[in-house]
Amino acid sequence: MATLSDKKILQSWHKNVSPWTAAIQDKAIPSRILVTDQAITDTVASLQPETVLDIGCGEGWLARSLADRGMKVTGIDAVAGLIDKARRLSAVQIAYEQIAYEELSATRITDRYDLAVCNFSLLGKESVEHVLKTIPQLLNPGGHFVVQTLHPLISCGESAYEDSWREGSWAGFSDEFTDPAPWYFRTIESWTELFVSNGLSIQQLKEPVHPESGQPASLIIVSSVP
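Above: the chain sequence. Below: its structure as tokens.
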């Protein structure tokens, strides 16, 4: 499993900027259109933040959606090509910056936010652990951290239900995608421990259900700084 790493994730996303942006723009991912896009947007809006940090913002669809609801949004991503796409696609005033997860710190990002959100953007191991360690320093007192990720029970497949690196796949996507990114699987217990050990209080676990399969389409973790 030596080839499966945080570095390999970034290498893949640098190669797939254009097809990913096209897939989002063309609404080519059914689960997002039917369930998860609305689920994360509604969850963030329900917490009524004035300022939001979108970590792993990609081409910026969530940042734009939240800005349209009146929030002041900053989007960051490690991939320069995605930040460029986000800037080109955003008609409203949103601040975008290329920042690697490992570079997140209270000095690298000097503003403090009411809410930080990661929407299917916590894919690695060490990089994700660093994000969770840093988040409390980036939030205002009482601020929230919201994560939407693959539901562990559904995404585990035939593999053992234990933390481990998994091979990636672009199955169901266009042929323009290449070199699928690996990802680090975490159990629900492991996700919970990652939040609690970094001083975040979990307020809610949400499981948006896919209307066609009847199965959870994702897991949303809502937490706060005590």
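The helical segments are 6-15, 17-25, 30-46, 61-68, 80-89, 126-138, 152-155, 188-196.
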